[in-house]
Design goal:
Layout lengths: L1 H18 L10 H21 L3 H7 L1 H8 L19 H8 L1 H11 L2 H28 L3
Helix pairs in contact: 2-4, 3-4, 5-6, 5-7, 6-7
Amino acid sequence: MKKILLTLFLIAAVCVANASRSGDLFRIDEQKLAVEMADLSAIENLVNTENLTLSQLFADNNELAVSALMPSYGAASMVEEGPPLGIPSFVWGFCLGLIGILVVYIVTDSRSESMKAVWGCVAAVIISVILQLAVFSTSTI
């Protein structure tokens, strides 16, 4: 029975790993990149033609500088949207249990993300109990 459970687990793991592959990860949309970089190109041209420093740029052209540079400049960019490290909150709770719930709670400070981690922990406990019962029921005393 242990061999069957191990084989099923390995097959499931391979299937999940194959299903999670994405071929579009390394494709670049040139038009979207050009749109995103338009403000930075305008700032670069302004800095090169007028020989400005960052403080002069913020003083003279505040709108352009703030719109292009502030999202990636300063502590405001350190705030992370979504789950920690891009790992789903359910997985944090499933793999790390109470520690995973704590990490999600501290990093995201979001009730919905924390509840996803709690459900991941609950799922891990249920699966663990079911597997323990299966192993216990098949073993001979």
